[in-house]
Each structure stands twice: as structure tokens, then as C-alpha cells.
Amino acid sequence: MDIPKAELHVHIEGTMEPEMVFELARRNDVELPYSSVAELRSRYEFSDLQSFLDIYYANMAVLRTRRDFRELTAAYLRESARQGVRHAEIFFDPQAHLARGVEMPAIVDGLSEGITEGITEGAGSGVTAELILCFLRDQSAESAMDTLRLAEPFLDRIIGVGLDSAEVGHPPSKFTEVFDRARELGLRAVAHAGEEGPAEYVREALDLLRVERVDHGIRALDDPELVDRLRREQVPLTVCPLSNVRLGSFSHLSQHTLPRLMAEGLMVTINSDDPAYFGGYAGENFSAVREHLGLTREQLRQVAANSVQASFLDRERKSALLAEVDAWTE
Ligand code: HPA
Ligand SMILES: [Zn+2]
């Protein structure tokens, strides 16, 4: 579905299609424990977040050079622009790459060159993108602080910080200090919360990390008081429908609580999370939700408008994009 939209929840490493995993493995001389693309794809049966993360981090081993990050990002922008994405705020996980000896300049230069290349060679000159540095919450707060320090020379190309990886047992409170520091440096803040973790983590993300958006946030529905607050403050939730089904939060897309979140008056957006693993880019998530949850065209238009409003774009560009959403017809 090509309705104009912003994508606010996508991990660049999760956009690496199996074909690219093999191509980079060959180019970088990395041995893979699978013999074919088909075999790799057959492993994409997940039972929960951790079962996905295991294979997601393993596949990242093929990402080694600035060129790899550039090609990955350009490919993501080309495909998502075909599906109507007009602006993307892209997560990346530097700690996972630093651990393999890939240095911060190769990562950030590669990603930013990829944005430029994707826009000039395919996505189109009207498309924009920003980078959000995510801390891995299953690593220490000290490691997060070290990573932020390493990123300081590159802050002209990083719009904000986020928090991802294994959620349960790693509450937002663990990262209060590093988020304080990030805000002092002028960075925006978002965090994954309430994906598998409890509603309390959503509250902590808001109160302690002072995030401007909550990534996922689906477990907020367990807590009526929190729902009231999210409605009152119109906190954007970056919901990822296909991801939630593939990681077992819902048995089928038809069981997803997205319609309930909307009925509660929350500011919901629809995103792909890790499209190469979960079966669809942003437009495909919109189509799936329309088909299985019966969202009307006007509801989908509202969700697309929410994504523009919830983005870190300036007021002028938001107005221009909102006009595009308004004018959209199939
Ligand atoms: O959905 C996710 N949740 C947490 N960490 C992640 N890293 C990539 N995708 C995800
Ligand atoms: Zn995510």
C-alpha cells in the first residue's frame, strides 16, 4: 500500500534480505552455517523476541565495511519508497558492530552515504531519512555510555537515541543516565517498551528516559491508567503488526490489538521493524492490517498522518507531507 507515510520503527540490520546475507558473506569471506538462501529463510520461524534476536545478531556478522552499510541502507530506502515511505527514521545497533571490530566511522559514514545513494538512485529526491542510535539494553549501562561517547564526533548525522534488544529483565531505568547525557547533547529520545516487557516499562520510558515516542507499546493495554495517560499526552506508539505476530505476541494478525489501541484514542503508527525477517516492509504492513483487521481507508489515512506528526521533521516538511497524505487516492 503506497499511501505516503513516515517509517519511524525500522532496524537497518533487520532490512538485510537473505540474498544480501549471502552476497556479503562471499564478499567478506565470512562462513555461514547455512548452505543456501532457502535454508536460511527456513530458519525464520520465531517463537519469541530472543529466538529472533539470536539469528538477527548472527547474520550481522557479514556486515563489515562502510560499503556494506551503504548498500544495505540504499536498498532499504529504494524498497520502502516503492511502498510509499517518504521519510524514515532508521535505527542502528553500533554495539553489535563494534564488538566485531567494525569502527564507528565505517558504520555512520556507510549509513549516511547509503541514505544519499538511496535517495539519488531510486527512492527519489523527495524522500528523507535520519539515523537513531540504539543502545542494546541487554548490555551494561557503561557500555551504552561508552558507545554514546564514541558517537559524539558524528552527532551531526544522528538525530536521536533509542533502546532495543532483549527487553524482559532490562528495564528503561537501567539507562536513565545515558539518556540524560544524550538529551544534553541535543539528541531526541525514543525507546522500545511494552513489546514483551510489562506496561511498567512504558511508564519508566516516559518518566525516566523522557522519550518522545514509545516503540511497540502494545502491552500498555494491560494498564488502563497508562492508556489514559498515553491518550491525554498523545504519546506516539510505533506499532509493528507483522513483527508482533511473527514474534508470538498475537497468534494471528486478526488477533492484533491495533484496532483497540485506535479505539482508545491513542496516537498509533504502523511500521515494519525488521522487514527482511517478518515478511513485509511498511506498505505491506499497511496492506496486511487493512486485510486482516478491516481498517478503513480513512483510518489508514489517520495512521499515516500520525506517522508524519510523530516524526522528528520540522513543521514545514510535516505540513507538506500531511498535504500529500490528504491528497492520496488509490
Ligand atoms: O523488535 C525488536 N525488539 C527489540 N530489539 C530489536 N532489535 C531488532 N528488532 C527488535
Ligand atoms: Zn524494533
Automatic annotation (TrEMBL):
GO-annotated biological processes: adenine catabolic process; hypoxanthine salvage; nucleotide metabolic process
Catalysis: reaction(s): adenine + H2O + H(+) = hypoxanthine + NH4(+)
Record's keyword terms, sorted: Hydrolase, Metal-binding, Nucleotide metabolism, Zinc
Annotated site (Important for catalytic activity): 216
Cofactor binding description: Binds 1 zinc ion per subunit.
Cellular component terms (Gene Ontology): cytosol
Protein origin, superkingdom: Bacteria
Active site: 195
KW Hydrolase (keyword) present: yes
EC number: 3.5.4.2
Alphabetized InterPro entries for the sequence: A_deaminase_dom, ADE, Ado/ade_deaminase, Metal_Hydrolase
Role summary: Catalyzes the hydrolytic deamination of adenine to hypoxanthine. Plays an important role in the purine salvage pathway and in nitrogen catabolism.
Family: Belongs to the metallo-dependent hydrolases superfamily. Adenosine and AMP deaminases family. Adenine deaminase type 2 subfamily.
Protein name: Adenine deaminase
